[in-house]
Amino acid sequence: QMENKRGNISIITYVVLLGFGDLKEVGTALFSLFLSLYVVTLCGNLLLILAVQTSPYLCHLSCVDVGYTSSIAPQLLREVLAGGVTISFPACVVQLYAVGSLLTVECFLLAVMSYDRYLAICWPLRYSVLMDIRTCVKLAVGSWIGGFLFVGIVLILLSTLTFCGPNVIDNFFCNFFSLVKLSCTDTTMVETVVLTSSFLSLSPFLWTLLSYSCILSSTLRISSSTGRYRAFSTCSSHLIVVSVFYGTLFVVYMTPALETTLNLNKIFSLLYTVLTPLLNPLVYSLRNKDVQIALKNGAKLSCLV
């Protein structure tokens, strides 16, 4: 049964995700591309988790990347082959919660990592005291709890709405604004509350900006060019990841939802949901000496075995 009746209102029980249906003729090529990216993303992040035991934030970041990529990629692979996919409405809500929570966790983790870099550059002599293992664990666990609690509030707000159609989402995964459009009740209050809370959720981004402002100020006061280069190289990997992640995120959610920008938004959504998790292990492997040493040691051990 496709619909349930509640009074005179038909409640939708499934959702049609159009994905990249207009590119169905190249579906096989897209399937091969996305499958390759997904496999490389999983291998890269899992390798990073195994190789870098001394950097808990990198391990948590890789776990987040594996989580939300796996929440989207298998469904995306089905969509490009079939030109769209039909999923149950509860499954759509679960995907919204999983992807939204993990993306929020990543925002918190990136902010914590920027604070870590700030302490390392601006307070090097006190770094080991200010950022000991207990503090690292607390900040990492707090990031996970904060992300899932924040999106949990969004789900509570969604539960106050009635969804009676249409049941078509012109995207490749379920997100809040796409799901709200399926409601046949007034969504003004819910959207206002979520938008207001979204500004509060920018606090990790603002914290990241503040940390890097302090880092830049401290770096410019270093007299030697060698010292400035070392300070910059310490945070260059993180800065690249932050720029790509927030850059694509802002383009998607700050661009008006016009028909002419829907396909462009899908492409940018791919950047932060599929390509950023692939980029993270690559950037940290190339730019982080600890990661390079760990990978080299792992390679030597595998050769000995």
UniProtKB/TrEMBL annotation:
User: In which compartments does the protein localize?
Assistant: Cell membrane
What keywords would UniProt list here?
Cell membrane, Disulfide bond, G-protein coupled receptor, Glycoprotein, Membrane, Olfaction, Receptor, Sensory transduction, Transducer, Transmembrane, Transmembrane helix
GO molecular function terms noted in the UniProt entry: G protein-coupled receptor activity; olfactory receptor activity
Question: Principal localization?
Answer: membrane
Output the Gene Ontology cellular-component terms: plasma membrane
| Membrane protein topology class | Multi-pass membrane protein
Domain called G-protein coupled receptors family 1 profile: residue spans: 32-284
Keyword Glycosyltransferase: yes or no? no
Q: Where are the transmembrane segments?
A: 30-52, 94-115, 136-158, 235-255, 267-286
Q: Which InterPro entries match?
A: GPCR_Rhodpsn, GPCR_Rhodpsn_7TM, Olfact_rcpt, Olfactory_GPCR1
Q: Which residues form a coiled coil?
A: none
Q: Which family does it belong to?
A: Belongs to the G-protein coupled receptor 1 family.
Q: What is this protein called?
A: Olfactory receptor
Question: Source species, please?
Answer: Loxodonta africana
Lineage, highest ranks first: Eukaryota, Metazoa, Chordata, Craniata, Vertebrata
Q: What gene name is given for the protein in this entry?
A: LOC100661114
